[in-house]
Amino acid sequence: MEKKIIRKKAYVDKTYCVGCGICEKNCPLKAITIYKGIYSQVDFDKCIGCSKCAKICPASTIEIK
C-alpha cells in the first residue's frame, strides 16, 4: 500500500490581513503574493508549510493547517 504524504499549508484570514507584505517578502519559496494591495494570497502549489509567514505576520492572520 502506498503512503500519501500530506503537507500542511498556510491559510490567510483575509478579514484581518492588512496587506503589509511582510509575509510575501519573507516566504522562501515566493508562494505568497499581495492581492490588489489588500490581502495575502497563498499559492498552494508552491507552499511547503514552513510557517515562516505565520511566525512573522504582525496581524497574526496566517495559520498553518
CATH third-tier fold name: Alpha-Beta Plaits
Shape type? elongated
Tell me the number of strands.
Answer: 4
Radius of gyration: 12 Å
Major sheet: size, sense and barrel closure? 2 strands, antiparallel
Second CATH tier, the architecture: 2-Layer Sandwich
Number of continuous helical runs: 2
Beta-strand residue fraction: 15-25%
Taking pLDDT < 50 over at least 5 consecutive residues as the criterion, the unreliable ranges are none
In short:
This protein is of the alpha+beta class and 65 residues long.
Please characterize this protein's 3D structure.
The chain is built from two helices and four strands, in the order E-H-E-E-H-E. The chain is elongated and about 45 Å long. 15% of the residues lie in helices and 22% in strands. The longest helix is centred in the middle third of the chain and has 5 residues. The mean pLDDT is 94. The protein is α+β, with helices and mostly antiparallel strands and 65 residues long.
